Amino acid sequence: MTKIAPSILSADFAKLGEEIKDVEQGGADYIHVDVMDGHFVPNITIGPLIVDAIKPVTSLPLDVHLMIKNPDDYIQAFAKSGADIITVHQEACVHLHRTIQLIKDNGVKAGVVINPATPAEMLQPVLGDVDLVLVMTVNPGFGGQTFIESTLTKIEKIAKWRSELGLDFEIEVDGGVNPETAQLCARAGADVLVAGSAIFNQANRKAAIEAIRHGAEG
Ligand code: DX5
Ligand code: ZN
What we know:
One of its GO terms (cellular component) is cytoplasm. The active site is at residues 34, 174. This is Ribulose-phosphate 3-epimerase. Pathway: Carbohydrate degradation. The protein has helices spanning 16-25, 48-54, 75-81, 96-105, 152-165, 179-188, 197-200, 205-217, and strands at residues 3-6, 31-36, 62-67, 85-89, 109-114, 132-136, 170-174, 192-195. The protein is of the alpha/beta class and 218 residues long. The chain has a single domain, classed as Aldolase class I (TIM Barrel, Alpha-Beta Barrel), CATH 3.20.20.70. An eight-stranded parallel beta sheet has the order 1-8-7-6-5-4-3-2. Helix 3 links the parallel strand 3 and strand 4 (85-89). Helix 2 packs parallel to helix 3 (75-81) and helix 6 (179-188) packs parallel to helix 8. The structure holds D-xylitol-5-phosphate and zinc ion. Zinc ion is lined by residues 7, 32, 34, 65, 174, 194.
């Protein structure tokens, strides 16, 4: 079954704990945490302090998406705060294998992510080393942007390589996911769908999650 990872970027931060419990009760599989530094992306969001604060609120895995320069400097802090998956951008890592190993050495699952304009081929050297591949379907920085359809061929390629190589990493997509684009992503081979505005901008989060899952499986 397709997994749904609500992005708390679109949650009400004044009541973040309640927002997380709401999506957990609504059937979410992961909690997606968007970390932005104002350098790699033009926005600043949350740091390890917030991950630490939300950890006791949920039993769901915390899927921490680092949109930051020099991720190596912060991996240990996010691991200590309770991240279960840490995903780093290929574009931000000069020594990608080293960064992936650093995540694993901290006892956390390792993911790698590419922006919409980065070719899928850039991931080929590390496919055997990661637990998760994240394909950005918008340019990172903000919630509520429009899905970029040209990313679908990259999801298809990565899914094909995974089966050819006999690997079992998860394929996640992030940005502009709604019930319609969920279907396109799932058909292309995505297993985990991140959705921010399509879930948190709806009053009934359970219904919003079910609509996305239904879209994916339709
Ligand atoms: C984009 C973030 C996403 C974002 C998705 O920079 O990485 O996780 O919150 O938001 P929606 O689902 O609204 O596009
Ligand atoms: Zn994200």
